[in-house]
Amino acid sequence: MKKLAERFEQLAQMLAQFFSGLSVIVIALLGLILLVRIGLELKVLVGLSLKLDAANNFYLIMDKIVAFFILFEFFAMIISALKNKGHVSITLLMGLGLTALLRNLLIIHDDYLDIISRHYLKRGGYLVVSGRNGYLSALRSPR
């Protein structure tokens, strides 16, 4: 019975090593695919920026910039996973969350003040808007 348990443990260890190696290979392939996709997005973005009517294509250019940075964030996460044997650090994930928030504010750029105030006020803070350009500062309410 003890030999069977040891044999099962060896088999489980071999399978774990196989799947670990397979996941690294799949992550590396995904990284290569993303690298090619980033290059294609960058090529389209440069082409759109150099056109004479770039001002008319503002929203299309912004869309391509957002797509480029989303792909770049995924690529950064894949690099981090490859460096750390499949693990991604919490600081990288927090940074990705912050850039996702900023990207959302860029996409919905007309109502950024409304978006910030609505979400921030729900969490117990208040906003101060001052100046000619609508300078925005967020302050926590005293508890």
Describe this structure in words.
The protein has 143 residues and is mainly alpha-helical. It has helices at residues 2-50, 58-83, 90-107, 112-122; strands at residues 125-130, 135-140. 73% of the residues lie in helices and 8% in strands. A hairpin with a 4-residue loop joins β1 (125-130) and β2. α1 (2-50) packs antiparallel against α2 and α2 (58-83) runs antiparallel to α3. The longest helix has 49 residues, at 2-50. It is elongated, with a radius of gyration of 23 Å. Mean pLDDT is 76; it is low at 125-143.
Q: Could you provide a short overview of the structure?
A:
The protein has 143 residues and is mainly α.
Count of distinct strands:
2
H/E element string?
HHHHEE
Give the CA-CA distance, first to last residue.
63 Å
The percentage of residues in β strands lies in: 5-15%
Biggest β-sheet strands, sense, barrel: 2 strands, antiparallel
Strand order of the largest sheet: 1-2
**Portion in helices:** over 70%
The value of Rg in angstroms is 23 Å
Shape summary: elongated
Please state the average pLDDT score: 76
Low-confidence stretches: 125-143
Contiguous helical run count: 4
Helix/strand structural class: mainly alpha
